[in-house]
Every structure is written in structure tokens, then in C-alpha cells.
Amino acid sequence: MKNLFHTENFKPDKKNIVRAKKHLGQHFLKDETIALNIVKAFTDECKTKSALEIGPGMGVLTKYLLEQKTFETYAIDIDKESIVWLKEHFPSLENKLIEGDFLNLNLGDIFKEPFSLIGNFPYNISSQIVFKIIENKNQIPLMVGMFQKEVAERFSANPCSKAYGILSVLTQAYYHVEYLFTVSETVFDPPPKVKSGVIRLKRRETDFDVPEKMLFKVVKAGFNQRRKKLRNALSQFNISDEILKPSGFSDKRAEELSVQDFVTLTHLVINNSDTIGK
Ligand code: SAH
After folding, report:
1. For ligand 1, is residue 129 a contact (CB within 6 Å)?
2. pTM (two decimals)
3. pLDDT digits (tens, 9 = 90+) for 177-231
4. Residues 80, 86: Cα–Cα separation, whole Å
5. Ligand 1 atom closest to 55 (CA)
6. Domains of the chain by range and CATH?
7. Which of 139, 134, 138, 145 is nearest to 54 (CA)?
8. Is residue 111 a contact partner of residue 139, using CB atoms and an 8 Å limit?
9. What residue owns the CA closest to ligand 1's atom 11?
10. Which of ligand 1's atoms lies nearest the C-alpha of 56?
């Protein structure tokens, strides 16, 4: 079917709505109470002067964000049709609305100071969004976001659970993670196939004392061979078992280690591996 809204002359009126595009992960939230609860979880903790919403779509969160006086709201959406719609419905957003891909956005170009992030995120790029947050963690003290439930659970998962993995350890190393609530698929148009979960990330006041790159390497090596005991999963670092064994990690699997354990293990690797530059 022809997409009526994709012409250059498209001028939305109140009856028109943005047509959901699957490849952009568009599922529009219809429930105003849930929208308000998401925004409240954000405003309760937002201490920055600016907020950035990723993927506003038809502005279900944006309208509540724009009511706030304590911060200025910016928004980025990749979908031209949403941008046109938003400009029409929220003229005050005009100069703070970016058409583009969040993953390619140079955050330093837009924000000179810390800012907070919010969004019902496109599920196809959720892990990439979080990795970008971790990369820019010193500029992003707060994030409230909706993810596919299974992904939301990974961020907040504890050791020894099925959901616990790379995303859990790396996120929790830099942020306090709260799983706030689950959202049913029925409150979206079109409904996604799975439930959603809203999480909040608050930047830790003090970081673990560990070089980030090495922590990432060790965590990835551990979980890339999830089923293997760590002495095998970490073989690339060439550490003798005599050194690994007394730590108690040798016979464990990655999923059994807490974030603090990974920090300890990373130091062990740094001090004893002959495959990395010291
Ligand atoms: N927040 C709205 C829309 C959620 S759907 C609501 O809750 O109803 C996800 C939104 O993210 C869509 O508007 C889609 O166009 C946008 N989007 C998808 N990929 C994006 C990207 N890479 N960068 C920015 N926005 C993106």
C-alpha cells in the first residue's frame, strides 16, 4: 500500500497520525497513565538543566516533559514523519528537535553540560543505546527508559540468574539500576510481540577502581564462553592456574561473579597476564 505520509508535501492535521514503521521499531504508547508514570520516574530524579528524549514518535512523553520548568527538553527522532508531526503539534520544541540517528549523534555538539536521557526506546537498538550511555556516562547522570522486558531484566539482573550477562555487569558497574515496572503489549499501537519493562539508571557516586577497557575485555571474555569455567574462558589472557585458583574464580563461571568480583578478577588479569600491555 502506498504510504500517504511519505510525500514531501505531507502536512499533518489533527486527524493524521504517524504511521508506525516496523523497521524503525515504532510502537506508539497509548496509555496516558503509563506515560505519566514514566515521566514522573524521570522528573523525580532529574537534576540536570537539559533532558534528551530518544524517539519521541508522536510525543506521548514529550508533552509532559515540556511542562517541566526545571529542565529544557530536547528530542531526537530518526523518522522524518514524526519530526514533521512533532513540529506541528509542539511548536516550542522546534529548535530543540533533531532529525537523526541517536547512535550517530555527537552528544558533545549539543550538550556542553551533563544531561539526562529518557525514552520509550526503539527495541531494535536498545543494547546499542545503553552502550552509548556507558560510553558517555560522565555526561549522563540519569536515564529512564522503556525496553523490551527481556532486555530490561538483563540490565537489572543479579548473578546466577539467566538474564545476568555482559549488559548487567557493565551497566551495574557504572549505574544503580532499578527495574520500575512491566508494561503490557496491549497498550501500544501496533502492539509489539513482547512485554516491555521500564528501568531507571542513576550514575554511581563513586566508581570501582578499575581500568574500563580491561574490565570490558574480561567481562566479555567470561560471558562469551558462558558455559565454560573461567580458567578456560579467560585462556586468552594466559594466566597460570596457580594464580587464578587461590582467588576462587578458576572453577566458577562468569554468571556466578558479582560486579565487585569482576573488578577483582580484572586486577588479577592486569597484574598477571603476559598477553596485555601493563
Ligand atoms: N516514544 C514514542 C515512540 C516509541 S517508538 C511512544 O512511546 O509512543 C520508537 C521511536 O524511536 C520512533 O519514533 C522511531 O522513529 C524512533 N527511532 C527509531 N530508531 C531511532 C534512532 N536510531 N534514533 C532516534 N530515534 C529512533
Report:
1. no
2. 0.91
3. 999 999 999 999 999 999 999 999 999 999 999 999 999 999 999 999 989 999 9
4. 10
5. 11
6. 22-203 (3.40.50.150), 212-272 (1.10.8.100)
7. 145
8. yes
9. 55
10. 1
